[in-house]
Each structure stands twice: as structure tokens, then as C-alpha cells.
Design brief:
seven-stranded mixed β-sheet, 9 strands, disordered C terminus, Rex_actinobacterial-type, NAD, NAD(P)-bd_dom_sf, Rex_DNA-bd_C_dom
Length: 250
């Protein structure tokens, strides 16, 4: 996945228990904050009031030193011998991620993938609401999907204003994605999640996240290939086993 990010944004003021000023975070830290938030919600639902850095790191799948450094950017250092306050840390991270307000999302492209995304319950539980579905296919316009009526892409400018669209999701074929991105930008949408297998050209003030499932599968294919290359040596010995035999015999 790729992201474009330009400059920093100032918050509108401090909240109780939240960071006092909007931090300019490293990209790697931004990418890990949602993992920390997911782990914290799971811990909170399990009844935990506090969590050590080691416990939270394990739940999020990172090392504890990296986690402590990430959270220090938020001004959160935990309490020695106690750890982090789960509820407070959730509030801090949600504030920084802008999840203290619900973000309106429009989805363009209601093919198989678009249908699946429109019905994904995880968006609502994480602070996002799909408020509009759009498509260029007249056969799909007017169809009701998960309570929403599909509107024509030509209505995007009006929809963006009516619904105060914060984020546009592109789930069209690659050949249509750039035109859709252009229309989103023209309508004033400056954050785009792109599921189409292509690179979008957008203005500098527009942030794009790209999700390419085929690329993720190709990366996994590399790891499968690498593992297979380590298992078959002459005589049926594995590469690991051969290494151990050499070490013992040396």
C-alpha cells in the first residue's frame, strides 16, 4: 500500500486526556496506530483497565521498544509498574486518527468488490459510514444495496456537498479509476482509498491509499517460493538440517 502525505495539520484544540497539540508523526508510526487501537479495543472488551508496553506490543504484533517510541509521539509514556491506561490511550489514538468524529464515505463502483465493501460492518464500528454508492452503469443505478440506492456518478458533486464526503473509495476496474479520481478531486474530496490495480495521479493536497490484493498475494507467493527452495536438497535433506549437520561436524 502507498500513501501520499504533505505537511502537517493542526488540531482545533486540546481535549481532556488527549494530546495537547496535533503531532507531526512519522509515516511508520501512523501505519501502526490502527493496530494499537485494535489491540486496545480487544483488551478493553476483555476487561483490562491497564496494559504493559510488552503486553500491548504482543497484542499488536510489534516489539515493545518500537511501541513505546510510537506512543511517546502522542505524549503517552505510561506509568512505571502500572503500564498504560487502556481507555485513555484509546482516546488519545482515536483523537490523533480523527476518529472522534464519524467520517462520511462514498463508494464508487458497485461490482462484486463494491458490493462486499458496502456490506462490511467493520467500517461503522471504526468511525466510518458509507453514505453514498455511485456507478456509471445505468443498469446498476437505482439498485438498493445494504439500504442505499446506487446513484449515477454524474451526481457525485451534489452528493459530496449533501453528505459532506470526507473519503472516496474507488472499487472500479483499473481503466475507469483515474477518471473517477479526477471527479472526486473536482468534487472536493481530498482523501481516496483506491482498490483499483493502478497508480493514480492526483494533486499534491490529495492523499491516496492503495489496496492491491494481487500484490499482497504475489508477496505471499515469494515467501512460499523461498520456503520451498529451502526444503529440497540432494538426498532429501533440508537446508536447515544440512546447516545443523555441518555445525555439529565442524
Amino acid at each position: 500500500m502507498s500513501q501520499q502525505r504533505h505537511g502537517s495539520t493542526s488540531g482545533n484544540g486540546a481535549r481532556a486526556g488527549a494530546v495537547s497539540a496535533f503531532p507531526d508523526l512519522p509515516e511508520a508510526t501512523i501505519a501502526r496506530l490502527p493496530e494499537y487501537l485494535r489491540a486496545l479495543h480487544n483488551l478493553g472488551e476483555g476487561g483490562a483497565d491497564t496494559i504493559s508496553s510488552e503486553g500491548l506490543a504482543a497484542a499488536a504484533g510489534v516489539n515493545s521498544a518500537k511501541l513505546r517510541k510510537d506512543l511517546s509521539h502522542l505524549g503517552s509514556y505510561g506509568t512505571r509498574g502500572v503500564g498504560y491506561d487502556v481507555a485513555l490511550l484509546i482516546e488519545q489514538i482515536e483523537y490523533v486518527l480523527g476518529l472522534d468524529q464519524r467520517r462520511a464515505v462514498c463508494l464508487v463502483g458497485v461490482g462484486n468488490l463494491g458490493h462486499a465493501l458496502a456490506g462490511y460492518d467493520g467500517f461503522a464500528s471504526r468511525g466510518f459510514k458509507i453514505v453514498a454508492l455511485l456507478d456509471a452503469d445505468p443498469a446498476k443505478v437505482g439498485e438498493r444495496i445494504h439500504g442505499l440506492i446506487v446513484r449515477h456518478i454524474d451526481e457525485l458533486p451534489a452528493v459530496a456537498v449533501e453528505e459532506t464526503i470526507a473519503i472516496g473509495v474507488i472499487a472500479t476496474p483499473a481503466g475507469a479509476a483515474q477518471a473517477v479520481a479526477d471527479e472526486l478531486v473536482t468534487a472536493g474530496v481530498t482523501s481516496i482509498l483506491n482498490f483499483a490495480p493502478c497508480v493514480l495521479s492526483v494533486p499534491a493536497n490529495v492523499d491516496v491509499r492503495k489496496v492491491d490484493l494481487a500484490i499482497e498475494l504475489q508477496i505471499l507467493s515469494f515467501h512460499e517460493h523461498r520456503k520451498a527452495s529451502l526444503t529440497a536438497l540432494p538426498g532429501g535433506r533440508s537446508a536447515t538440517g544440512a546447516g545443523n549437520q555441518e555445525a555439529v561436524g565442524s
